[in-house]
Amino acid sequence: MTARQALSEGRRFLLRRRRDVLRLAAWSLLESAHTFLGGYGVARALDDGFLAGRTDVGLLWLAVAAAGTLLGGLAVRGVFAGLAGLVEPLRDGLVRRAVAQALATAVADPARAESAAGAAAVSRLTHQTEIARDSFAGLVLTARSFVFTALGALLGMATLEPALTLVVLPPLLLGLGLFLATLAPMAAVQRAFLDTDEALSDRVGAVGAGLRDVVACGGERHVAADVRQLVEAEARLSRRLARWAAVRTLALGAAGRLPVVALLAATPWLLRGGVTTGALLGAVTYLVQALLPALDALMTAFGTAGTRLLVVLDRFLDEPAEPPAPAHAPVKRPPILLRRVPPAAELRGVTFAYGPGARPVLDGLDLVVEPGEHLAVVGPSGIGKSTLTALLAGLLAPTAGTVAVTGAPALLPQRAYVFTGTVLDNLRYLRPDATPDQVRRAVEALGLAPLVRRLGGPDAVIDPGRLSHGERQRLALGRAYLAPAPLLLLDEATCHLDPDTEEHAERALAARPGALVVVAHRIPSAVRADRVLVLDGDRAQCAPHDELLTRSRLYRDLVGLWHPDAA
If you average pLDDT over residues 112-132, what whole number do you get? Predict the structure, then answer.
């Protein structure tokens, strides 16, 4: 929004509330009377009272000036009461517009409404509406105060001696002009600063939400460089704002000090022209106690609240931008180590600790996962099962040893990721080019047909907030079935499913091409696997279920806790 557009919108807003504006002006006239009586009373007290040897008259005029102060206090009380009639309708209108923009965005692109655009809508509805309300209230108060204070002061000086106005007015207008010249460029810098700040907030929020994907895809350096550019841009704009603030301070000094300097410099000429001592003192009173403080407040308000209001209103008056076309194709990370005739995964002497002085979670682990193998991982809580899947997925790098993985693995964590989009988009997230026949086979293999029908069919848009944890996990399992990954890693990815559904899903995933590694939270998952890896502190044993029952006491204990007869 340009300054001209802002003035046009503001004029229409004020015209619709003429009654409130007139009420505010009426109270402000009392403030003009307070300003007028302040300087005029001092001048008359000096000329007609003290300098004329009539102390009683001088004291009477000072009492009149004091009465003007009481009148000003009454005026301020009425001004604040009348201000609500302008400020509150503005805030209500902005809230309605923010809600309308958010609804328009939600209808146009539900996924965008949930992400960065949704965060921007919440910011408009809460933080930015309050900024606009407070800034508008401050501008109205200071602009009204300056106009009516200047009216009272200039009228008082003209009443005392018209030559006083001729001396004071030119430097005052010069300083005001210099200040007004800084508003447009400062508003442009302020707008760029807020745009960059919003972009930085959105980017940091997006990176935080997809941090595991960023690490898995090896995009740390690219993301860090992208965020660093925004940080550096915001720092540059902050320095530009500081420079314009310095120029504004110079303008304030010119407007606030030059009239006093001009009055003092013209004093001999004014005295020779017949201007009385009381009139000069009254003019100084008008400048120092009324006009210059009001001018200081006006410049400060327009330099800070004015630019903030202009930029914030820009966000409310802009129409929501067209949402970009969604891109659901994931970025795949190259494998850690490629082999010509590899197993699905191989770990050699792998040690991992969360910090230089921390105790290793895994210590010297050797493991080979063959192509097409179904491996279950069991062990006490906190023993390192999730750490192992993170190492295989490339989310973590080993402290020592090597991890070799063929192709790009797919990791399904306990908290399934489902986004706002169609059912088909969610299923094809890891394989955007999947054919309808491939999708149908995945739905049939995992028994997802009733769920898909309940959600409204493949083309129905999903609201993730309305899905249960189990429904999210089932959709994620369908996505994993379609994935071309030669290694599937399930880190308690079926913990919200009932045992029968879990068994059906694991058998279907084990039957697809590729290896399957399951962090088991139920012992039947281990019984179904080709081999079971038992993590037990510094020791790790890997063998079929029946063999582990005779070799591993920990495994027998785990089986016994689940099914005493089997143990």
Answer: 55
